[in-house]
Description:
Blueprint: E1 2-5, E2 13-14, E3 19-22, E4 25-29, H1 30-34, E5 43-48, E6 58-65, E7 72-77, E8 83-87, E9 112-119, H2 128-150, E10 154-156, E11 159-161, H3 166-180, H4 186-189
Antiparallel strand pairs: 1-2, 1-5, 3-4, 4-9, 5-8, 6-7, 6-9, 10-11
Amino acid sequence: MFGVVFPNRSFPMDISAFSQIDTFHWILDMNTFVGEAYDQIKEICIFLLNNFTLPPDKALAVYIQSPGSPFLYCGAVTLSRPSAVLSLPWSQSSDGGQLQLTNADSPALSAKIGVSVDDLSSLPSLDVAADRNIERMALKVGENLFNFMQSFCGVDGSKLVVPMDILDRWFKKFQEKAKRNPDYLKGFTL
């Protein structure tokens, strides 16, 4: 039906790596896969297998659950989008969809990844993960700029005073760090 890969972390795994809850729900317990280092797994690639045909109005939705938290929607694949690399924003709350797997729906003691066959119309935008990444990156870049400016601020009554060339200096420093360390910009998207 489907397979997953954790980029730079695993070989392709098929549905047999997951515990089947019912006809339309599967769970991967991250403790059995990586133990307590689940939050180091930042992405999942999910793909439909060639012999599986999903109805056009259905999607395979991916959810994550940090210990003690509800399930959080990460994205989905469909017949028209048979594979996707999805971000796994562990331990962040969201108003995005929630996966219903049991009657109790009690908070989990271990991290889990859930896959569910859902109605396509009931899911948020398939680009929800990309939207979250852009928002987080903008906030982190803004925070970096603010911290840099704050170190050069002076006070004039009730106003903060910064040098006129502060944005140019910050941007040059930002570019230099990005050139020296290719992973520097990746830190803003995690």
